[in-house]
C-alpha cells in the first residue's frame, strides 16, 4: 500500500533542473592561478631585459666607488668604471641581493661588464 | 724549491674565491651590526693586502683569511641560534 503510493507519487513528481552556467571569470582566474603556479614555481620566469638593465644600472650606480655619470648599458667594470676584480666581486654580490638568487662562482667570474650581467640575469629563470 | 716554510702562494682565483666566500658567509649573520662589520672587515682586509707581493706574506694572509672564514661560518650558525628578538632599525625597510 505504502509502496504503491510512493511509486505513484514518484511517477508524477518532477523537479525542475536547470544547468547553472559556469561563471567564466571564475574559471579564468582559476586557470590563471594554476598557470602561474606551474610556470613560476616549477620553471621560473624570465625577466624583461630592459627592466633588468635598469635595475643593474641602478645597483652599479649605488656602488660607492662608481662615478654615476660614467655608468652606461655597455660599461665595462675595469676599463670604463675603473674598478678592480675585488669591486667586481662586490658588484656581483650586490646583484645577487637585488635579484634574489645566487650566481655560481664560475659564472660570477665571467661577469665583468654591465651587458654581461644583464644577459646572464635575463637568461636566468630564478631572477626576480 | 729551497723554501722550507712550505708556503703555498694562492692563485688569483683562490683569492677571489676566499673573498666571495667571506662575503657570502657575512650575509648569513642575523644581527645587522655583526653582518655589516663582517662585510666591512672583509673588504678592508682584502684592500689592505692587495699590494702584497712577498710569497710568505701572501701565503700567511691567505691562510689567515681561510681561518677567519671557518670562524665566520661557525659563528654564523651560533648567532643564528641566539638571533636578536628585535630587528635593528637599519633592517626595517620604510
UniProtKB/TrEMBL annotation, chain A:
SUPFAM superfamilies per UniProt: ACP-like
Keywords, alphabetical: Electron transport, Fatty acid biosynthesis, Fatty acid metabolism, Lipid biosynthesis, Lipid metabolism, Phosphopantetheine, Phosphoprotein, Respiratory chain, Transport
Carrier domain ranges (all copies): 50-125
InterPro entries for this protein: ACP, ACP-like_sf, PP-bd_ACP, Ppantetheine_attach_site
Pathway: Lipid metabolism; fatty acid biosynthesis
Transmembrane segments: none
Subunit structure: Complex I is composed of at least 49 different subunits.
Family: Belongs to the acyl carrier protein (ACP) family.
Protein name, as recorded: Acyl carrier protein
TrEMBL record, chain B:
Pfam families with a match to the protein in the record: Complex1_LYR
Span of domain Complex 1 LYR protein: 14-70
InterPro entries with a match to the protein in the record: Complex1_LYR_dom, Complex1_LYR_LYRM4
Biological-process GO terms, alphabetical: iron-sulfur cluster assembly
Official protein name in the record: Complex 1 LYR protein domain-containing protein
Lineage, opening ranks: Eukaryota, Viridiplantae, Streptophyta, Embryophyta, Tracheophyta
Amino acid at each position: 500500500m505504502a509502496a504503491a503510493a510512493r511509486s505513484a507519487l514518484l511517477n508524477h513528481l518532477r523537479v525542475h533542473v536547470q544547468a547553472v552556467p559556469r561563471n567564466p571569470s571564475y574559471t579564468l582566474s582559476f586557470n590563471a592561478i594554476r598557470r602561474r603556479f606551474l610556470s613560476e614555481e616549477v620553471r621560473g620566469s624570465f625577466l624583461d631585459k630592459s627592466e633588468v638593465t635598469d635595475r643593474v644600472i641602478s645597483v652599479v650606480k649605488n656602488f660607492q666607488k662608481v662615478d654615476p655619470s660614467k655608468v652606461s648599458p655597455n660599461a665595462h667594470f675595469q676599463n670604463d668604471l675603473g674598478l678592480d676584480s675585488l669591486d667586481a666581486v662586490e658588484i656581483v654580490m650586490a646583484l645577487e641581493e637585488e635579484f634574489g638568487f645566487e650566481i655560481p662562482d664560475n659564472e660570477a667570474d665571467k661577469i665583468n661588464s654591465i651587458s654581461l650581467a644583464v644577459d646572464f640575469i635575463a637568461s636566468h629563470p630564478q631572477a626576480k | 724549491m729551497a723554501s722550507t716554510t712550505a708556503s703555498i702562494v694562492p692563485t688569483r682565483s683562490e683569492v677571489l674565491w676566499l673573498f666571495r666566500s667571506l662575503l657570502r658567509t657575512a650575509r648569513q649573520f642575523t644581527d645587522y651590526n655583526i653582518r655589516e662589520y663582517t662585510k666591512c672587515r672583509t673588504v678592508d682586509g682584502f684592500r689592505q693586502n692587495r699590494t702584497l707581493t712577498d710569497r710568505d706574506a701572501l701565503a700567511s694572509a691567505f691562510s689567515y683569511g681561510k681561518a677567519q672564514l671557518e670562524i665566520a661560518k661557525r659563528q654564523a650558525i651560533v648567532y643564528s641560534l641566539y638571533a636578536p628578538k628585535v630587528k635593528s632599525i637599519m633592517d626595517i625597510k620604510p
